[in-house]
Input
Amino acid sequence: MKRAKDVAAVERLPAADAEYIEPMLCAPAKAVPDGPEWLFEVKLDGFRILAAKPAGGEVTLWSRRGNSLNRKFFYIAEALSFLPEGTLLDGELVALDAHGKPEFSLLQSFRSAAEHVYYYAFDVVRLRGRDVSGLPLTARKKLLAELVEGKSERIRLSEFVEGDAAAMLRHLRKEKLEGIVAKQRESVYEAGMRSGAWVKHRLNQGQEFVVGGYVPGGNGFQSLVIGFYRGKELLYVHRLVAGFVPAAKREIFAKLKGLEVVACPFVNLPQEGKSRWGGEGLNAEKMKACVWLRPEIVVQVEFVEWTSETHLRHAKFVGLREDKAAKDVVRES
Output
């Protein structure tokens, strides 16, 4: 009887087809909020994906930027074929390593690692042609579980816990996972918004950076010149050398072709004088070796820490972020 009431309640909601929308965003947080009004999820290290099955259509996997990823991850689209028409899910495409932990770099070699890739659904925005975005998060979570559970091994629910944020943080640190997402239990789905109803807190040191240039070398480049946006200004932070294998270099270099520009896009270059940490500064002489680019390519980077000069220590390349717009890349807390 309860199930019939839930279905009837959804059918009274406004009609809306499953089309691409801008996903709701998490605000970075220095500390995790606590209290009964919050629930908590593991911050998964993968690609943000909207999965849509419109009326009379097939499933489309939309990246955060609105690009179709069906060609790359066709097997995930096929696994979601059970979705009823007019349904739109929000979730994360994740590759798991041999220990069952998310490993972003595995997503770069999707053909050889296809058996390790899963879609973790954490929200439903449209359901059977109805707009459920205005329902409380807890209600949407219930609808999502009824929709997804047991349908496909490839498709999983992003589990959540309620209550003790500190206990979850201790567990995540022990397991060396990326971070935590806290969401207000009664929050509605605010497409394209970063309202603060959802917040994220990183446990590791890593984030996305924008490529604004490179130093030529083997397999196309020796290093990438990277930075982040502060308002409309692109700030230089590092020349990225570590973490590249030859295949990754070739793939990245192919994407850099055609982006060349004459002027340096970083507002804080050149940086004269010796860096405290051994040469991360990029002075006028070293800049002569650089090829400058339109800042469109985004890469994922891990590092030990930020320096007082807003540079990175011991940074390494992890992967390309084709799901994130360069203008959205800022320094995270």
User: Anything to note?
Assistant: Helices lie at 2-11, 74-79, 137-148, 165-175, 246-256, 284-287.
